[in-house]
Amino acid sequence: MTTTEKTAADWIAAAQDVAAKLAVDAVERDRRNATPYEEVRLLKEAGLVTLLGPPEHGGGGQTWETAYRVTREIARADGSIGQLLGYHYLWAWAARLVATDEQIAAVEELYTRNNFFFGGAVNPRDSDLTVTEDGDELVYNGHKSFSTGSRVSDLTVLEGVLDGTGDHIFAIVPSGQEGIVFHDDWDNIGQRLTESGSVTITDVRVPWASAAGYVDRKFRPLTYNTLNVPAIQLVFTNFYLGIAQGALAAGLEYTRDRTRPWPYGGDDKESATEEWYILDGYGDLQAKLWAAEALTDKAGAAISRVLHAPRADLTPEVRGELAVLIAAAKQRVIETGLEIGTKIFELTGARASASKHGLDRFWRNLRTHSLHDPVAYKRREVGVYALRGELPEPTWYT
Predict the structure, then answer these.
(1) For tag attachment on the chain, is the N or C end more exposed, with fewer CB atoms within 10 Å?
(2) Acyl-CoA dehydrogenase C-terminal domain: from which residue to which, for each copy (predicted)?
(3) pLDDT digit string, tens, across residues 197-226
(4) What 3-state class would DSSP assign to 127?
């Protein structure tokens, strides 16, 4: 079957195959914390990296709805690799978000034909990179605290402010160049394989013609340009959801195979799978997870329609409603996932806390990345919409 003949179900099945390979040694790889070159190779060989790429260049031509599901499947087995893939999809779409038609065509042909993997040095909480003009070139300089995908990326998305102006300029550059130094200093309790350390940018040159969305050195804004934040917030939501699904599946498997019934409760059972409190606990967690999945899928279908529609058609109202829906999905998934990540220990038993089982990695992964931006502000966005009917204004986090 050729890439263009694959259906969404085929791509999800391909992701499940990769996930099965990742799951075999997920605990050991998390401990080693080594750069995930082999893991990204698996993604490339399965065609998942070019899932959104144009069919005429060998890409899958799939929708964002499928990309979100694929991200989730990978994250079930390994939250770090799910994050890497989800971020890649957003950066691969960056040209479509802000660039001209000619720039979009060039970037999509480049990454699809070469099966390139994206990283990004675009952390809004740091000072912006400085961009200066040098004739027909732009020169980027500065430092970013986070650059997810760093060493495993082929291309890096840069963002900076043109010196003396307030103009933000995005550009896509080769990762492997002297002016980009990745510092390999990501050392957090979770999402350990995401290569999210800091980066220093020194005299990285880009032709003015490659400044995304600029025509005659002037940017032409559209509401569509602001979809980068809702799109990546739903990337977060989907790999969080995958982590939660993986946690529940691991807990269920452990209980079926290893958990012993409690012999001092006065209503003794032959098997832990007959224990009332265990059945009650898993029933509650599964119901909450199904609800979170349904809300996330609703958000995925809604934003996918917009992302694949003509860019000029998007209105601020539709964009705002999408942001609220995604904020609702994100908060539900975080709270459900963190509950699952801790509750499974009560349902699996004391021996499940042994390091060799690695059940703690699910909570660590979700807890680490869910601090990316305060979930309280997502609840507030939903509350303001529900109570006052007000839509959130676009920001770097909304």
Answers:
(1) N
(2) 235-372
(3) 999 999 999 999 999 999 999 999 999 999
(4) coil
DSSP state of 259: P
Q: Report how far apart the first and last C-alpha atoms of the chain are (Å, whole number).
A: 40
Q: Is the pLDDT of residue 265 over 90?
A: no
Per-residue pLDDT tens over the stretch 345-368: 999 999 999 999 999 999 999 999
Helix (H, G, I), strand (E, B) or coil at 136: coil
CA proximity to 211, closest of 203, 220, 199: 220
- Separation between Cα atoms, residue 392 and residue 78, nearest integer Å: 33
d(C-alpha 395, C-alpha 264), whole Å: 56
- Under a CB-based contact definition with an 8 Å cutoff, are residues 112 and 58 in contact? yes
The per-residue pLDDT of the chain, averaged, comes to: 97
Q: Is the Cβ–Cβ distance between 24 and 83 less than 8 Å?
A: no
Q: Name the DSSP letter for residue 195.
A: -
B/e letters for 242-253, b = 16+ CB within 10 Å, e = fewer, are bbbbbbbebbbe
**What is the distance between the alpha carbons of residues 89 and 67, in angstroms, rounded to a whole number?**
7
Contacts of 1 (CB under 8 A, 6+ apart): 10
Average pLDDT of the residues in 226-245: 98
**Token digits of residue 70:** 């694929």
Report pLDDT for 266.
86
d(Cα 67, Cα 187) in Å, to the nearest integer? 28
Q: What is the mean pLDDT of residues 252-264?
A: 96
pLDDT for the residue 276? 94
Strand 218-219 to strand 214-215: parallel, antiparallel, or no bridges (unpaired)? antiparallel
Q: How far apart are CA 27 and CA 267, in angstroms?
A: 36
Q: Which two tokens stand for residue 302?
A: 């809604």
> Scanning the structure block, which residue is given the tokens 């085929």?
10
CA dihedral angle for residue 62, residue 101, residue 203, residue 198, rounded to 10 degrees: -30
> Where is pLDDT greater, at 265 or 96?
96
Q: Which residue has the tokens 């934003």?
A: 303
3-state secondary structure of 393: coil
Q: What is the pLDDT of residue 241?
A: 99
Which domains can be identified in the chain, with CATH numbers? 3-114 (1.10.540.10), 118-219 (2.40.110.10), 223-388 (1.20.140.10)
pTM over 0.70? The answer is: yes
